[in-house]
Specification:
Number of domains of chain B: 1
Distance between the termini of chain A: 27 Å
Structural class of chain A: mainly alpha
CATH superfamily of chain B: P-loop containing nucleotide triphosphate hydrolases
CATH class of chain B: Alpha Beta
Strand order of the largest sheet of chain B: 8-9-10-3-11-12
Strand content of chain A: under 5%
CATH class of chain A: Mainly Alpha
Chains: A mainly alpha (369), B alpha/beta (285), C mainly alpha (307)
Oligomer: heterotrimer
Helix content of chain A: 55-70%
Helix content of chain B: 25-40%
Number of strands of chain B: 12
Strand order of the largest sheet of chain A: 1-4
Number of domains of chain A: 1
CATH architecture of chain A: Orthogonal Bundle
Order of helices and strands of chain B: EEEHEEEEHEHHHHEHEHEEHH
Number of helices of chain B: 10
Distance between the termini of chain B: 39 Å
CATH topology of chain A: ABC transporter involved in vitamin B12 uptake, BtuC
Number of helices of chain A: 15
């Protein structure tokens, strides 16, 4: 009979995760706030959520969509539009008479609205697009993302979106720090908060993946014809995956806005989607843990660890050739190409952290490929 | 529609399937009654899997009707078949029947499950998970209750059901193996288990014995009869293994070039000269 | 009225021709490999950058031009060998991801080399001279482009229909596996496809950057995407389709850029409403419409998949 799966790996994983959260909190109270570490942690958390949301769609359901940046844009703007303090609106919307939205909602509400707005767009876009063949679906979603970008940049919608100008002054991560009467920060929460938000969202996604619906989505990915023959309605499940993925991309967009403290539609290009896709591939298509690891790795490398490649290095009097601004991204790109070509399964393949810790993972994985 | 409706599970009426210039099935009519095991045989390319695909909604037939338990589930009459509706002093009035096309998942919901000629298991999942997916369509949970794991009762019941089915097909030991790493014969049994998980009343088996040796084939034959009785099924089967066909079938339809060339009991078919000419003269595998 | 529209029409035909040269590369590669070569637009950009540096190094222009074409062809060939060939038996998504990776790498490479500064394309005497057509002032290159494009397309079509390698290409795009079994050297056919595509992209870059002389690492992204849309619109796999699609997109894109002015002059609107922002979006809207209405494109062939 079926061996009951040991609960230990799961418990160990949860303990590890809890330990990481505690470590982050402590680090933020003890290390200088300007340390690169926190940039990496915050940006990493944002990208982790977006990468997992993309993995849900591309990796677990097999829908090759390149529209992520568009949904992030929707989320970022909805968040910003509804949280800019009323007294700031006149200066932010300076070309549009303060804009037509003259109220704010609490941050959590705004983030949920951001997700819902993105999911709504996804629903509309999904109607024509989800029945296309994979390559065409990729290009169609790319196209829709560009259309969304054009709409949000249009000055005709300026009273709502601020047109081609940036949105700013909305609450960001630093606003969560607890300050004392004289304005000095007593408790730093600016890194823990994105971790919590991303953590909750990623946990929800994992719960979904481990449910009956998650299995159905994987079935759709593995063999559509067989999935349909087993009673799984393709259109319904693809739509579910698309909308849920976009919901979390929207929340991720809101988080990105909070991280950057300003948002501008024109920065949400297809290049952003490509970066997320590469993160997902490196982490392992079909592994949530992989996407999370890979996001932090990606951000750490591109923002921090490889920075030395951008500076002139001297060995004695000898200036090492090649090392100047931009070299880090070149090295980075080459590393990505190497992973794509030679390590196609990425860091984690399709395994999760509990699988690594469990001793019984021999039967899954290698056989099929 | 005039026969004993209660016992007729499946009826194909004048089904034609045309792909461009190729007529894969030509005016095929057949019936399968409750509790029967009916076999569909014929040389390769005769159109057998195409017939299955028409029944399950994968293809929309160019013409014809499929009835399931007396209800039309697939209807297509581009020329507009007239169906006698009213009688009266002015003569019979005819009404055009409108097309009906369900997606395959709806048809599975109605109670028709199938296996595939080329085995279509979910390659990234274990044997257990493959069968478990078959239980999804009967869910009462929705995406929210499922995500927040509020449907644990249903989940537990489904897992229990999947485990039982694996035991019935004799694959309990392989439950956690990747489905596609199993030997061919076991993969076929797994596919049957998965189909059974959808709670069908009609089971369509597409070459279930392909790739099996004679002993496995015999066991399969016993197995099919066993599950038919256990789950109160009707079985419609495409097969090439003549021993299996002759052993367990109640009736046989023979197809050649998309047309039905014979119908009858195993004894009748074995003696039918048309069939022998077209097909049975060769050694079975 | 005509005087208002004509200049936009003219630049539309010109840029359409340049898109056509890029679009052919996309459509040929997709026809043979079923691969969307995301890196193709960046090859186009690289050709521009190479010209900038060759010209700056002091070489005479009559030498630079063939050299640029040669190097561009080499780049296209190498990309295929290094990034696509190893993945030929991998699932389609892997190759597309590799193409995206190549695009990412090329852009970062160029960013590194240029330091992020806008580079000026060298002025090629003759084609960058200004001439007047009717009321419109434009560069000679604008007028030459359509004719050059048509000449090249005719040459290409003849190559495909009349030569052995062309016949091999047609066979491979109809049925990849059977062609291999029939003894066609797949690697040669694929290389030839990339060589031709890159060559045309190189020519296109010379024409394009003479018109819009700023070159940075992102210069290939939009033209590449639009050229791809043109290829899909015209029917992926069909070369005449890609060309016609490209001209339509080029023309519509420019008319929309000038739509505010045109409608204003026509008296339809009383002030500009910033419709130019939508010139790019229009291209994508067109893409989506064609994908929904007729996914095989204007001239594409319907392929029935057997289940």
């Amino acid at each position: 009979m079926n061996q009951k799966k040991s609960k230990t790996p799961m418990i160990v994983t949860l303990v590890l995760v809890a330990a990481i959260y505690v470590a982050v909190f402590i680090a933020e109270q003890t290390l200088p706030a300007t340390s690169m570490l926190f940039t990496v942690l915050k940006k990493g958390a944002v990208y982790a959520l977006v990468a997992v949301s993309m993995n849900l769609l591309n990796g677990f359901t097999g829908i090759f969509s390149l529209g992520q940046a568009g949904f992030m844009l929707v989320g970022a703007y909805v968040y910003g539009i509804f949280t800019i303090p009323v007294d700031q609106r006149a200066s932010v919307y300076q070309y549009f008479d303060g804009g037509i939205v003259q109220f704010t909602v609490p941050v959590v509400v705004a983030m949920i609205m951001a997700g819902l707005a993105a999911a709504f767009f996804a629903f509309l876009i999904g109607l024509p697009v989800l029945r296309l063949k994979s390559d065409y679906l990729a290009i169609a979603t790319l196209g829709f993302a560009e259309i969304i970008r054009a709409i949000f940049q249009w000055n005709g919608l300026g009273p709502v979106t601020n047109g081609s100008n940036m949105l700013r002054a909305f609450p960001n991560f630093n606003d969560f720090n607890i300050r004392d009467a004289s304005g000095n920060t007593v408790v730093y929460l600016s890194t823990l908060i994105p971790f919590i938000i991303a953590g909750v969202c990623i946990a929800l996604i994992m719960l979904l993946i481990n449910s009956g619906y998650g299995r159905a989505l994987k079935a759709v990915r593995d063999d559509e014809v067989a999935a349909e023959a087993m009673g799984i309605n393709l259109a319904h499940h693809k739509r579910l995956a698309f909308c849920i993925s976009s919901f979390f991309a929207g929340v991720g967009g809101a988080m990105l806005a909070m991280y950057q403290t300003t948002v501008q539609a024109k920065s949400f290009t297809s290049a952003m989607t490509y970066e997320i896709l590469l993160i997902v591939v490196i982490g392992g298509i079909g592994s949530v843990t992989g996407s999370v690891f890979s996001s932090f790795l990606f951000v750490a490398c591109s923002e921090w660890w490889l920075r030395f490649l951008d500076e002139k290095q001297l060995i004695g009097d000898f200036e090492v050739p090649l090392l100047r601004t931009g070299f880090r991204m070149v090295v980075f790109s080459v590393i990505i190409m190497i992973v794509v070509l030679f390590f196609r399964r990425g860091i984690m393949g399709d395994k999760e952290l509990p699988d690594l810790l469990s001793r019984r993972n021999k039967t899954k994985g290698r056989a099929a490929k | 529609m005039s026969e004993t409706k209660s016992s007729q599970v499946l009826k194909l009426e004048n089904i034609t399937m045309q792909f461009g210039g190729v007529v894969a099935i030509n005016n095929l009519s057949l019936e399968v009654n409750q509790g029967e095991i009916v076999a569909l045989i014929g040389p390769n390319g005769a159109g057998k899997t195409t017939a299955f695909n028409c029944i399950t909604g994968v293809y929309e037939p160019t013409n014809g009707i499929v009835y399931f338990n007396g209800k039309p589930i697939v209807v297509n009459h581009p020329q507009g078949k007239m169906i006698k509706q009213y009688g009266g002093i002015n003569g019979d009035m005819y009404v055009k029947q409108s097309p009906v096309a369900h997606t395959p998942d709806r048809i599975t919901h109605m109670g028709i499950a199938r296996t595939f000629q080329n085995i279509r298991l979910f390659k990234s999942q274990t044997a257990f998970e493959n069968v478990l997916i078959g239980t999804h369509l009967r869910r009462t949970s929705n995406i929210f209750t499922a995500t927040f794991h509020l449907n644990m009762k249903e989940e537990k019941a489904n897992r229990e059901k999947a485990r039982n089915l694996l035991e019935i097909v004799g694959l309990s030991d392989e439950a956690d193996e990747l489905a596609t790493s199993l030997p061919y014969g076991k993969q076929r049994r797994l596919e049957i288990a998965r189909a059974l998980a959808t709670d069908p009343s009609l089971l369509l088996l597409d070459e279930p014995a392909a790739g099996m040796n004679p002993q496995e084939t015999d066991e399969l034959g016993e197995f099919i009869v066993d599950i038919k009785n256990r789950f109160n099924l009707t079985v419609f089967m495409i097969e090439h293994h003549m021993n299996l066909v002759m052993d367990i079938s109640d009736r046989i339809y023979v197809l050649d070039f998309g047309k039905q060339i014979a119908e009858g009991t195993p004894e009748e078919i074995q003696k039918n000269p048309v069939v022998i000419a077209a097909y049975l003269g060769v050694d079975d595998e | 009225m005509w005087d208002t529209i004509f200049p936009y029409l003219l630049s539309g035909v010109s840029v359409g021709g340049q898109y056509a040269l890029i679009a052919i590369g996309y459509t040929m590669v997709y026809g043979i490999l079923r691969l969307i070569n995301f890196a193709h637009g960046d090859v186009f950009m690289v050709a521009g950058i190479i010209m900038v540096y060759l010209a700056a190094s002091g070489l005479p222009l009559w030498l630079c031009i063939p050299l640029v074409l040669l190097i561009t062809v080499a780049v296209g060939f190498l990309i295929e060998r290094a990034a696509y060939k190893p993945l030929r038996s991998a699932p389609r998504m892997s190759v597309m991801i590799s193409a995206i990776g190549v695009s990412y790498t090329l852009q970062n490479l160029v960013l590194y080399i240029t330091g992020g500064l806008n580079k000026q394309y060298p002025t090629i005497p003759g084609i960058s001279d200004t001439i007047s057509i009717g009321a419109a002032k434009t560069k000679v290159v604008t007028v030459i482009t359509p004719f050059l494009v048509i000449a090249l397309v005719v040459a290409l079509v003849m190559l495909i229909n009349k030569t052995k390698i062309g016949m091999a290409m047609r066979a491979v795009s109809k049925d990849f596996e059977t062609s291999q079994l029939m003894g066609i050297k797949i690697n040669n056919v694929i290389s030839a496809t990339f060589i031709i595509g890159s060559f045309l992209a190189g020519v296109g870059s010379i024409l394009f950057f003479t018109n819009y002389p700023t070159v940075i690492q992102t210069s290939g992204a939009m033209p590449g995407l639009k050229a791809f849309v043109a290829a899909v619109f015209g029917g992926i796999g069909s070369i005449p389709g890609a060309v016609i699609g490209a001209f339509i997109i080029g023309i519509m894109e420019n008319i929309i850029k000038g739509l505010d002015v045109i409608l204003f002059k026509l008296g339809v609107i009383s002030q500009p409403v910033g419709l130019a922002t939508f010139s790019d979006a229009f291209t994508f809207a067109l893409l989506i419409i064609i994908l929904i209405v007729k996914p095989t494109g204007l001239f594409g062939e319907k392929v029935t998949d057997k289940v």
